[in-house]
Every structure is written in C-alpha cells, then in structure tokens.
Amino acid sequence: MLLPLLASAWLAVVDSYWATLAYPVGLGLAVWLGGWAAERWYLRRGRVWKPIGVEGGIFGMFGLLLSFTLVASGAAVKARDATVHAEASSISGLYRQSQLYPPALRARVRAYLLASLRDQLAHPTPNAAECLRLVHRADSLNRAFDTSLLVHLAGAPTDRPVVEQLLALAATKNTNYFALLYTFRERTPRTILVALVVLSLGMCLMIGFMNRFQDYPNPLIPIVFVATVAVLVTTIRDLDNPGRGVVTPDYDDLTNVAAVIHQGP
Hints:
Elements: H1 2-15, H2 17-41, H3 55-98, H4 103-122, H5 128-155, H6 160-183, H7 190-211, H8 220-240, H9 252-263
Helix pairs in contact: 2-7, 2-8, 3-4, 3-6, 3-7, 3-8, 3-9, 4-5, 4-9, 5-6, 7-8
C-alpha cells in the first residue's frame, strides 16, 4: 500500500511546474555551496587543493547517463508517434474493407469507428486516470460492437466469414489503441531520474569547489553548466510526460481518418 502512494507522490513532484523552477535553483545553490566549502575549509586556512585525476571520469559518467536517458526519451516519442500511425492505418484498413460488407454491417462498423475515434480525440493527452477510463470505455464499445455482430449473425448466418474477418481487423485496431494508451503511462525509471538529479547536484558542487581555486574565478563556466544541465533534464522530463509536456503525439493521421469516415464513402 505504501509503495503505490510513494510512486504517486514521486510523479506528482516530478511532473509539477514547481520542480521545473526549483531544479535550476538547486543547481545554482550547489555551485555556491561548493565555492563556500572551498573558501571555508581550504582558502581561509591556507590549504591547497589539487585534482586527483578522477574528476573528468566522474563528469564523463554523468554525461553518459544524461545522453542515454535523453536518447531513450526521444526514442519513446518516436515509438508513440509510430503507434498512432499504425492505429490510423488499421482503422483506415478496417473502414475500407467494410465498404465490401452488406449495408447493415457497413453501418455498424462506421458507427463503431466514429464512437471510438471521438473518445480518443477528445482526450489526446490523457493522464494515468484518464487512460484507465478510456480503457474501460473502449471495452464497453467493443462489447457493444461484438453484441451487435452476434445479432447480425443470428439473422444472416451466411455472413460468418465476413464477421470473422471484421473481428480480426477490429482486434488489430484495438491492439494499437491500447498500446498507445500504455505509452502515456510508461515513464523513465525513478532510479534513473533520481540518479540524474543527485549526480547533477554533485557535479555543480564540484564545479563550484574547483572554480574557486582558479586564480581568477569566472562565473561563466558554472552558469553555462547549470543552464545546460537544467535544459537537458527538463527536456527529458517533457519527453517523458506526453500528458502534460510540450511534445505531444501527432494525431493528424487519426483526425484525417475520422474526417473521411464522417463524410462517408
């Protein structure tokens, strides 16, 4: 019971707009703290700090983790768009095939597809709760559609091959739709995000510390590093949350298919 609550609280923090503002501020404070530590424990006491040779490796590991996470988030966006295109293609194929069916079946397919697309396009960027409601709504539509097909089959037993083909095409459409809904709930693992935040704060601490030992400490390098890390991590958070982020799925294909179906043959 505690783990789901902690997971929900974690997502609430990560997805909040306050986190977007607090994160770069935290990085800046870490830089200042590093400089203060150098001043307090070294410079005031006349002590000299010398690099031990692993600083570059630490920054390299952080860069690898950051680039890996960014690439993975970008790949998830491409996979999400590909799923939308696959769903639009399966809906289009089902609608085209239905033009060969008897008029009664053709009307049932059209009504079913329009209802399904209306629900989906009304919630283009659902959160976790909306995804669950959409799944239940899709199940209800599918059960009603299956019931109507059974009613049709009872009155026209010779249409069984057509109905079986129709069910197979509808199953493909639903597979793509449910896969798309799942992508809205799929997130970067919490351990990776925690590691990014902790390591970035540590990097800023090191930069503030080492920069203080320069003959003429320049604030430009810490500022550039803080800005770069803040932008990249915020980009990862945006790509990771299509429900609230700037980057959202491209629904043009589904919108066009819905318009074609609405207009009719």
